[in-house]
Amino acid sequence: MSEAEDKLRLTLEERSSQESLRSLTVTDGLVDFCSNDYLGFSRSQALKDRIRDEVARHQDYRIGSTGSRLISGNSVYYEGLERHLAEFHKAESGLIFNSGYDANLGVFSSVPQRTDTILYDRLVHASIRDGIRLSHARAFAFEHNDVEDLERKLKGASGVIYVAVESVYSMDGDFAPLPEMSELCGRYGANLIVDEAHATGVFGQRGEGRVAELGLQNRVFARLHTFGKALGTHGAIVLGSSTLRSYLVNFARSFIYTTALPFHSLASIRCAYELLASEGELMKNLKEKIQYLKNRAGADILKKMIPGESAIQCVLIPGNSEVRRVARGIQEAGFDVCPIMHPTVPAGSERLRICVHAFNTEDQINGLINKLRTLLP
After folding, report:
1. Cα-based torsion angle of the residue sequence 100, 105, 110, 112 in order, rounded to the nearest 10 degrees
2. Which of 117-121, 130-134, 275-279 has the least mean pLDDT?
3. Domain that holds residue 139
4. Is residue 27's pLDDT more than 80?
5. Intra-chain end-to-end CA distance of the chain, in Å
6. pLDDT at 23
7. 234 φ, ψ to 5°?
8. Where residue 303 sits, what CATH number does that domain have?
């Protein structure tokens, strides 16, 4: 075994000893309380039919995009889709990236400059943190959803200031206090960037997200919406000014140096948005299921849950081995629920991440809660 292989093996063994070794699994046949498919679009026959018909209307489409958008991968369809999505989300302009990870990497690695400052919520997604690492700007974390701590950091910031938050946090399921944060950013001349990945399709009159729901679109520098969660497809769009779009086309390396999305992906995104606009009852149904789960949880489980109104409902079970034990018991009962362990979350805040969907039945929710109650320490 080479020195490199030996080093990798030792690192894996160390992680295994900490009960935090990850592995790929397949969980066929379980009731889904795990995925980000909040509206059931990824399994929707109505969406499949729309995509089939949209593809059939473009018989000359290519299977692959053949190159990056700056070389051969761009199209009238691509640019028309971006305009359509910008209008849907009440933005001036938008640029599609191949994934939410690519989008955050592109924005945060290219927009803030060496003399600028990035202030980010301590719990922002890893893709934002990775983009910040690639930036030359100074960066400081503020305490989660703590407006007072953010203001303290703003007072000491210099250069152009960017503030990075999520509208709905992926591991906690709670909301950022966007009205207060946008007011604070306005007062200090800072630029608010909001990742709307877990709000897209779930919040807003038509699923436009929390920023539009709160009427803050003109007070936010940039928004990121992903298509791989409630919309059941793949990819992401960064929304902002036409100047921001042009800048990203020129300087965002995760956009410039990657093959563009193929036509089938673009058609799927367009069809998902069309279905979203016509399926308002699904969002209403999802919210009712979220409330039903919280009502059924009762005081004993609620006291262990992170407060929140999103589809992500988390039950805190400290310790990697303990949260894995509970998750295993729930999975053996037929419910797909994921344990979220350290180092994904801070040690001591390990949790079950329960994702509620519009398609989950009351009987399924009852079964999940009843089993959880027997397993909690």
Report:
1. 90
2. 275-279
3. 47-278
4. no
5. 43
6. 83
7. -160, 150
8. 3.90.1150.10
